[in-house]
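Appendix B, Record 12. Input sequence as logged:
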Amino acid sequence: QVQLVESGGGLVQPGGSLRLSCTTSRSISSPNVMGWYRQAPGKQRELVAVSPSPGSPTYANSVKGRFTISRDNTSNTVNTVYLQMNSLKTDDTAVYYCKATYSRFDVWGQGTQVTVSS
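Logged structural output:
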């Protein structure tokens, strides 16, 4: 079964930057879509950014111009998606989850905490 390993979360001051990464375990095919979602305390999980392959990324309005999603598809069996987060705000505080969508199933990562605080 495919698994996702996330890294890069942490504590940062407002205006700072973080880079999240998410790597799949080996699989026989590449995900159709890889993306990032987040869930703040007391709120529902929401889309942050998704990157289809092929295709162009989609961003939540709240992160447009500040976050950039990118993928490393150089390997057919292992894929990595990144989320570069700049100009972070306190409202960006949440657990960030990676998701990979394959033809027949979805896989979620375990989540990584991002805290933006002074």
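The chain has a mean pLDDT of 94.
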